[in-house]
Design goal:
elongated, nine-stranded antiparallel beta sheet, mainly beta, 72 strands, about 950 residues, about 40% strand
């Protein structure tokens, strides 16, 4: 029987539902299946598909854990194992990990948390669609061929009526065809797995048998006359689609044009004595067939083979005789050796299921099984059993059967190649059945042998008689199974962190600082077996890492994060903790890394804030300060109020509150919505740059340490010497622009001149389009009536300037009287006024869909929903249908947008803002009610003002009184 090994460097798991087995490179084919036959013939065996995964040349030996991990990602496998393990624990029954199933391998999760690998020497299942079904080699018609109903070997047989006999598919999908050179084949008689072509030659029937590993071609030579026919001196089929070569071991390679191929072993034959049939030889071992290998055929000389055997034994053969040359999809993982035919390999894929061992007459040999165990590397072997079936105790003196490890040696070796010094120790001895009794199942404990071979790709197990001198002969089935129950060390716990408080781990040199005496810690724990797993946490004082002061098991849980709490810790003490994984059979290979921390529950003292001697104070202009705190201070939070310094200090704003239970704020971010953050390095002074926001305003600073403890606030007056009788100076806004409509009369001119008396040639006119009303009046200051402008009217023309009044990268103030909203709200923001809007950014005053004012600086598409600090809004106070003074301030020093409605210095909205990258000056005209119409605010406005700098309460009150903010 000639098993085939397939060669395809680009194989995956299966093609058209047919699993693959042996796949090697075109120059790495394993050869050597013995073929029982007295006639020279090449018989087609099934080839794996082109999508088959790289597997061992032994049938069904797939890369680790049985299925190519190129197709099933490791994460998916781990998840599948976890699900199966959880179900096994819940139900108390083994659960198959489906993604690891192959024709020869099955992996199951067991209820006790271990896993079981089941490896067979021959395929026992095949995937059809999404379901694994038992192998069924019964032939069924498929198109114009006969094919196995459920086979792991893609082969097909002729329906007769032509000279095409069979086809075998290689790993790449190429079909190798066997052509019958002696004429047209008759229609076969099909019975189960066998198609019989009667009288293909005088006195010769041909039986094509679908096997679990390929196909057997058995010539039934019915008479001596037929055996001596000249046609049987050169019995062969012609191979199309591949070239044949003979290897040094006697096997035959059939290589297709794309480099893929199949392999056949040496042909065998036997006669009908001792109850032999075409499926099974009798008591004696099958004999080799004399044969030659040519480029397109294996030519067998049946007559010479028979004559040679008759001369050797001195007996006539009993007809019919059976000649069995075979091709196989993959190589069996079971074979035997026999001293009677010392150069013959009995690794084959024929219809015969018999392996022979022990001594009888001139016959003497051993049985070998090979199993892939690469997936067991690093595992703890709990138990392992070799299960086989003794078909017959054929020669009745008793010599029990031992199982021993062997080798490793290239599988399929012959008696002469067998290294008799490669036997390992006896693992177990069994004495199954009784002489000439029925078939009986037998199992050997091979736990120690599997443990000894952990790390190897394969394990070879050999059966030998306990006493080789006793004439005792036994037959075993080729189908054997290795059952291995194993456990995997849990993975080392990773990602150690604190969850309460939320902190990262520290080191011995720089321990984390925690402001709690009860500390919750966490790691991520996984187990390669996918089952539940425990984690043991150990807490030590940093001064003595050899003595645990608290031990906390997480309990056996599903994989993932788990946490415990260490309690009643001492303030000021430095500790370290780490964790070990455990599945209660094995601990992880090591612990998590050490995680150091110090308990600190003491709040830092209030910081000291100082300014350089001689500092001056002008609203909106920078003042350099420094804050100094205790040695463990991590940072400062600060905010400014438009008030004089008061006692007691106000509470820290909610946004600036630091909690010992939460992660420390990102002091590097600098800007919050209402507060600013400054990083500190212990007691080293930290620099701050701030600006007064009014004539009397106060900077408040609170320190927090690395444990999250926070001090009370310390106030620093932003006016000279803290003397509220010497307020900060107002900023000079004489370079600004205003258009004081309230001082004009109707009709207004088409060009409104700049009202700044100091601007001179730098004045900017406000242009009124022809379509706009210039005669509108209203009562912004009852009972005084004033000219006003309107953005209403359904026209795309806008009231605007020709150039930009301010540079948006610097501090500025925009103010306007508004009476708004004739067109209502359209479910979208509406722009009241905008400067710029192109690539250099924009300044916008908007009304949100909720009818709330929003003062925005940033991109053209900025809205109140924007969260980017470089493009956002200060949003607050509802728009009314009465006149309102609306003022927006961009304070570049304090990095704040502030929105005022009316003349109050306490803003209705504040938001932190930073200048974006590049040119953000918002070059472009100032436009009221800008297009498009769908986003355009329609209403009345008057007295718009846009000046550089931050105005104070005095200047704001002047605007509220319809006065100008410029110097008198």
């Amino acid at each position: 029987m000639n098993p085939l090994s397939f060669r395809s460097p680009a194989a995956s798991v299966r093609r058209e539902g047919r699993p693959s087995f042996s796949v090697v490179t075109s120059r790495g084919l394993r050869a050597g299946l013995g073929v029982v036959c007295a006639v020279a013939v090449v018989v087609g065996g099934g080839a794996v598909s082109a999508s088959a995964a790289p597997v061992s040349p032994v049938v069904g030996k797939v890369s680790p854990v049985g299925v190519s991990l190129r197709e099933v990602q490791k994460a998916q496998v781990a998840q599948a194992q976890a699900v199966a393990s959880a179900e096994a624990v819940a139900t108390g029954e083994p659960v198959v990990v489906d993604v690891l199933t192959s024709p020869t391998q099955l992996t199951s999760a067991l209820p006790d948390g271990t896993m079981q690998l089941e490896v067979s020497t021959v395929p026992v299942r095949v995937e059809q669609g999404e379901t694994w079904v038992p192998v069924d080699t019964s032939l069924v018609p498929v198109g114009e061929w006969w094919e196995p109903a459920a086979s792991a070997a893609p082969v097909r047989f002729s329906p007769g009526g032509s000279d095409q006999l069979a086809q075998v598919q290689t790993a790449s999908g190429e079909w190798v065809t066997e052509t019958w050179p002696y004429g047209v084949l008759p229609a076969p008689t099909v019975d189960g797995d066998t198609a019989t072509y009667a009288e293909v030659l005088p006195g010769v029937d041909l039986k094509m048998v679908a096997t679990t590993t390929g196909q057997a071609s058995i010539y039934v030579v019915k008479t001596e006359k037929a055996a001596q026919s000249t046609k049987l001196d050169d019995l062969h089929v012609v191979i199309d689609g591949a070239d044949l070569t003979k290897t040094s071991t006697g096997a035959v390679e059939a290589e297709a044009a794309d480099g893929s191929g199949i392999v056949a072993g040496q042909p065998l034959w036997w006669d009908s004595s001792d109850g032999a049939t075409y499926r099974e030889p009798g008591e004696e071992t099958p004999s080799p067939v004399t044969h030659d290998v040519e480029a397109d055929r294996i030519a067998m000389d049946v007559g010479a083979s028979v004559a040679k055997e008759e001369k050797r034994t001195g007996d006539d053969v009993t007809y019919p005789i059976y000649v069995d040359p075979d091709w196989a999809v993959g190589v069996n993982g079971s074979w035997y050796t026999d001293a009677a035919y010392p150069n013959q390999s009995y690794l084959n894929a024929s219809a015969s299921d018999v392996l022979r061992m022990g001594r009888y007459e001139q016959f003497r040999g051993n049985i070998f099984f090979e199993f892939r165990i690469a997936s067991l590397a690093g595992k703890d072997i709990v138990a392992a059993q070799l299960a086989a079936t003794q078909i017959k105790w054929a020669s009745c003196p008793n010599s029990p059967v031992q199982v021993r490890t062997y080798g490793p040696q290239m599988w399929g070796f012959t008696w002469n190649q067998q290294n008799h010094s490669a036997w390992g120790p006896v693992l177990d001895t069994q004495n199954p059945g009784y002489c000439n009794g029925p078939a009986v199942a037998v199992g050997w404990n091979v736990t120690m042998g599997v443990r000894d071979k952990i790390g190897a790709v394969d394990i070879q197990l050999g059966l030998a008689p306990q006493d080789e001198n006793v004439v005792s002969r036994r037959h075993f089935s080729r189908a054997a199974t290795l059952y291995v129950t194993y456990n995997t060390r849990p993975d080392v716990p990773v990602n150690p962190v604190f969850t309460s408080p939320s902190r990262q781990c520290g080191t011995a040199a720089a321990p984390a600082m925690l402001g709690q005496k009860d500390v919750t810690v966490q790691v991520t724990q996984t187990d390669p077996d996918g089952g539940n797993v425990d984690t043991n946490f150990h807490l030590m004082k940093a001064s003595n890492l050899n003595a645990a002061i608290q031990d906390r098991p997480s309990g056996v849980l599903a994989q993932g994060t788990r946490s415990v709490t260490f309690t009643n810790l001492t303030d000021g003490e430095t500790y370290a903790w780490r964790a070990w994984g455990s599945d209660h059979r094995m601990d992880s290979a090591g612990p998590s890394s050490w995680c150091y921390f110090t308990v600190d529950t003491t709040k830092p003292a209030v910081p000291t804030v100082t300014a350089a001697p001689g500092s001056t104070y002008t609203v909106g202009q920078p003042v350099a300060l420094s804050a100094t705190g205790a040695t463990d201070v991590a940072g400062y939070v600060s905010w400014i109020t438009p008030t004089r310094l008061t006692t007691p200090a106000p509470s820290v704003p909610v946004e600036g509150t630091v909690s010992v239970a939460s992660a420390l704020p990102n002091c590097g971010a600098g800007v919050g919505s209402t507060v600013r953050w400054t990083c500190a390095s212990g007691s080293t002074p930290a620099a701050m740059t701030v600006a007064p926001i009014d004539s009397l305003s106060t900077l408040w600073v609170s320190a927090y340490d690395r444990a999250g403890n926070q001090s009370a606030a310390k106030g620093f007056p932003l006016y000279p010497n803290g003397n509220d009788t010497t307020p900060a100076a107002s900023v000079n806004v004489d370079a600004g622009h205003a258009w004081q409509l309230s001082s004009m009369t109707t009709p207004l001119p088409e060009t409104i001149p700049d009202s700044n008396p100091w601007i001179g040639a730098n004045g900017i006119d406000l242009l009124i389009p022809e379509t706009s009303s210039r005669t509108s009046t209203d009562l912004p200051d009852p009972p005084l009536e004033s000219p006003v402008l309107s953005t209403a009217g359904g026209t795309a023309f806008e009231v605007s300037t020709m150039t930009a009044p301010v540079n948006a990268m610097n501090s500025f103030t925009f103010s306007v009287w508004l009476k708004g909203g004739y067109n209502g709200l359209n479910g979208a923001s509406q722009k009241i006024v905008m400067q710029g809007g192109g690539m250099t950014g924009s300044i916008q005053l908007q009304v949100t869909p909720a009818g709330v004012y929003a003062f925005c600086v940033g991109d053209y598409n900025v809205t109140s929903a924007s969260t980017d600090r470089a493009s956002n809004c200060a949003t607050g106070s509802s728009m009314s249908h009465q006149w309102q003074l609306v003022t927006g301030v961009w304070d570049a020093v304090n990095q704040q947008l502030r929105l005022h409605v009316g003349n109050a210095m306490n803003p209705v909205a504040v938001n932190g803002h930073v200048v974006g990258a590049g040119d953000r000056s918002a070059t472009g005209p100032l436009v009221f009610g800008p297009a498009p119409m769908t986003g355009r605010w329609e209403g009345l406005f008057t007295n718009p003002v846009m000046v550089p700098g931050v105005i104070d309460h005095i200047q704001l009150e002047r605007l509220a009184a319809f006065e100008l903010p410029f110097s008198d």
